[in-house]
């Protein structure tokens, strides 16, 4: 998710809101030498009905509550965004989330995967729309066009539990709702791989006000209109999440060079003499069936741009490091 247009009004954000947007993405491995990313290296299921999970950290400024519907991302009348982020990274993998999106015009619920060099894979729900969800992706912070989103149908995502899945390999990204595939993006269809998300990612779950008065007109339009915070609270619920790291037993991932290519990622484990990486062209993470289908269709032109409701509402936002909260580009201004 990217907050779409940097408005002057965004500079009026309070200091605490700006801090909210800051993540360890401060170091971009494409132009800096960065610390390695701790690897998940396995499969976990987190049941948020049991409360807080040590697998996640709350973003600065976020306080969370937990109940019978799991994690509660509550936008109250002050409009503060709520975000939690995994502590560990996956290097290709499959993530499934049982979620109910927040109500409310302009309220944006989100399930996003993001890497240190700003590859990104998104699900986003508009609180004022009970018939669809958006998918989107970005490669290496390339926001030169906003024609990558689709809007698959989903029934009452605010009032009905659905399971939203991202199955991410080096060959393709598959978005599914309740196990039904709604979008497939092949590596070759993302600018011959250049815009294909392919570096180790963390998972971010969040809720924010896209229709806030201090957002740009384009963002408010994209979000579905102005939010009425007097109607708050607006709550996104996440009951559970299953995260499978397709790279098993790694302890950390590091960038071997500044290309941002998956074949440059070094997989470290506790064996001191063996750091490994995947080779270019090797399909990582998919089983034989998905490998076969992605290979045979790698030149297929995907239908990913068939639905572009967002394009008119988005514009370039180069250098926006802190995408998730929609506060990010304001934060960038202060760094
Ligand atoms: C929800 O989104 C779909 C797809 O963009 C659109 O056709 C529909 O009009 C929207 N509904 C509302 C209430 O905005
Ligand atoms: C960014 O993506 C666009 C297509 O969406 C492409 O034309 C452009 O070359 C890309 N920029 C870089 C630096 O890869
Ligand atoms: C959305 O609003 C409806 C009607 O007020 C309510 O029944 C439902 O619980 C709300 N859903 C969420 C996720 O807040
Ligand atoms: C997650 O919650 C959904 C919705 O209640 C449920 O259908 C699913 O079985 C749960 N999954 C796990 C792994 O607990
Ligand atoms: C560490 O990586 C090496 C090289 O890939 C592999 O042979 C070894 O089994 C790995 N160790 C563990 C604990 O997975
Ligand atoms: C790696 O070594 C640390 C410290 O000895 C240990 O806590 C951890 O479980 C090991 N991880 C793996 C994947 O073997
Ligand atoms: C990962 O580690 C577990 C436990 O040490 C081992 O059983 C398994 O074979 C390892 N898997 C790989 C792919 O190295
Ligand atoms: C493996 O990677 C780790 C972390 O990047 C590094 O500290 C270590 O020196 C590497 N080991 C080898 C043998 O390259
Ligand atoms: C492997 O194939 C099965 C059945 O076709 C599918 O459910 C699963 O998601 C696939 N796994 C990957 C990693 O593509
Ligand atoms: C190619 O893309 C079209 C959508 O444009 C899709 O219907 C078709 O199934 C794809 N073919 C393969 C082999 O994936
Ligand atoms: C590295 O790239 C990021 C993202 O494009 C940018 O914001 C930052 O200023 C760059 N840093 C350096 C030292 O070039």
From TrEMBL:
One of its GO terms (molecular function) is endochitinase activity. CDD domains: GH16_fungal_CRH1_transglycosylase (cd02183). PROSITE patterns: GH16_2 (PS51762). The active site is at 120 (nucleophile), 124 (proton donor). It catalyses: Random endo-hydrolysis of N-acetyl-beta-D-glucosaminide (1->4)-beta-linkages in chitin and chitodextrins. Residues 277-310 are annotated as: Disordered. InterPro entries: Beta-glucanase-like, CHR-like, ConA-like_dom_sf, Glycosyl_Hydrlase_16. It comes from the Eukaryota. Keywords: Cell wall biogenesis/degradation, Disulfide bond, Glycoprotein, Glycosidase, Glycosyltransferase, GPI-anchor, Hydrolase, Lipoprotein, Membrane, Signal, Transferase. Residues 1-21 form the signal peptide. One of its GO terms (biological process) is carbohydrate metabolic process. Belongs to the glycosyl hydrolase 16 family. CRH1 subfamily. This is chitinase.
